[in-house]
Structures are given as C-alpha cells and as structure tokens.
Amino acid sequence: MERWLEEFIHYLAVERGLAQNTLASYRIDLNQYLDHLKKQGVTSLGQADRNHILSHLYNLQKDRKAPATISRHLAALKHFYRFLLSDGMVVEDITLNLESPKLAQRLPQVLSTGEVEMLLSQPQLADPAGMRDKAMLELIYATGIRVSELVSLNLQDVELAMGYVRCFGKGAKERIIPLGSVAVQFVGEYLARSRVKLTKGKAEHQALFVNVQGKRLTRQGFWKIIKKYAREGKIDKPITPHTLRHSFATHLLENGADLRSVQEMLGHADISTTQIYTHLTKIRLREVYNSAHPRA
Is 275 buried (19+), middle (13-18) or exposed (0-12) by CB count in 10 A? Predict the structure, then answer.
C-alpha cells in the first residue's frame, strides 16, 4: 500500500507541481489512513471499503480533531482514490459523495495601519539583523507574499530599480508583484550594508534573506522574529506569520483596490478565497460607523 502512496506523491509533485509542504501534508494524512487500514486487517487498497473511510474519519473526530483537519484528511483521500481508480488499482471510488464537515468561516487576524507602523518600527537599523528584519517586514507588507515565498526569495528575484519582486507560489506558479518605495528603500539598504555582514562575504549564497549564520532564513526563524517585534511593540493581538499578508489585502481593499487585482497579487487561484477580506472591510466600516455616527 505504501508503494501506491509514493506513486501518488510522485504524481502530485511531477504532474501537479505541488509544493513540498503540501506534499508532506498529503503524506502524513494518508499514512495515518494506511495505519488505520492495517489495524483493521486490510492488506491491500482494493480490500478497503466505504466503512473503512468512515471509521477513519470517526476516529479523527473521536480524537477531537478540528473540522478543518478532518476536511483536509477527506480531501486527501478523495484525491488519492481518484488517482487509484484512474490507474486501475481499485474498481470504484469509495470516497464518492462523502461530504466534509461544515466549517465555520474564520476571519483572519488583521492589524490596523497604526499597529503595522508600530510593528515595522521595532527593528534596530544599526544592527545587521535588525536591518534585515526591517527589510523583510516592509517587503512582506508591501507585497502580501506568503512567508514560504518570502524565505524562498533569491537575490535575482528582486528588481529594485524597476520596483517589483518575482515569487513562485503554490504549484510553482510565478507572479510579479509591485514593490512600494519604502520597501525598495529598506531592501536596498539591507543589500548595500547588512547582508554582506550576515553572509560573512560569501558571495555564492543566493538567498535574499539570511540568518546570523549566513544561511537561508527559515519560516520558523521568521515566526520568532515577528513574534518578538509584536511583543516589543505591545501589539495586543495574536500574530502569525501571515498577519502582514492579511493586513496587506485588507488595507488595499479598504483603500479602493479591486478584488481581481488583490487576488492576482496574493496568488489565489480562486477569487472566493480573496473575498474573505471583503468581510473584514465591512466589519471595519461598521466599527467606524458605530464610533462616529450620532445615531449608531
């Protein structure tokens, strides 16, 4: 059974071009399912039936997994069985017509423009790592790119003279995003006088943002950095690596940007994913109305 799982992962990587993080998620979820089948005495995927799927999902629910986690598991199983059916490994898709649990729409946490200013003013610019942090925070707020895209940037992906950044999102899809003048300024200063100190002059290193050992910064490294500055700036909101991305999208829409343009900059395949930010702008309008109108 594991062989077919590896065949499926290879298909997702080569033919679908999915990112490594997505592939890892598929592998973990489907390995849990295969472990469940083994405990039930199933030795081949052709022996599994709909009840095995349902009992696996029930076990996840019994383990108090969130509805979003159960939905992700079921989505992985649906893709897996479609692949198995197309390759003739099974004679039917036993996931057909199985529905995911209903999910409550969770609105992303967004900073106000004042909170963004406070967060972005925390790095100490005299310190090479502080200048790097300032450049990173300005760049991610200016472009709305994902943290995984930020830490994957190479030197050649940023064109300061033209004012744009090139990144590769989910499915290795390339997109070009404008870079504002403030971000251009601080990325330029970081490249001119701070990055060389962090890399110890090793010119062969292509990573745009590096840690104090001169190696490519990781997502975990960025997570620690943004949490540190949120704490120092006394920002009383939960901060995640995606908070500035959410704030970027919301602030654009609040200031009149059209939904399609924001979708393109964020790299969303489906505009419905971008539409969640319109809910945030409506909430913000209601807050302004309630605080300012005499008869609110």
Answer: middle
Question: In the chain, which segments carry CATH 1.10.150?
Answer: 2-86
178 phi, psi to nearest 5 deg: -60, 150
* Burial class of 219 by CB neighbour count within 10 A (0 to 12, 13 to 18, 19+): middle
A 10 A CB-CB count for 180 gives: 13
> What residues are annotated to the active site?
146, 170, 242, 245, 268, 277
To the nearest 10 degrees (0 to 180), the angle between helices 2-14 and 20-39 is 160
Instruction: Report the CATH architecture of 2-86.
Output: Orthogonal Bundle (1.10)
Instruction: Give span(s): CATH 1.10.443.10, the chain.
Output: 113-291
Strand locations in 144-222, DSSP E? Answer: 158-159, 164-168, 174-178
pTM for the model: 0.58
What tens-digit pLDDT sequence spans the chain (296 residues)?
788 899 999 989 888 888 888 899 999 999 999 999 999 898 888 888 888 888 898 888 888 888 888 889 989 999 998 998 888 888 888 888 887 665 455 666 788 889 989 999 999 999 999 999 999 999 998 888 888 899 999 999 999 999 989 888 776 678 888 888 999 999 999 999 999 999 886 755 789 999 988 899 998 999 999 999 999 999 988 888 788 888 888 888 777 777 777 777 776 666 566 566 665 555 555 555 466 545 44
Token digits for 16? 């679908």
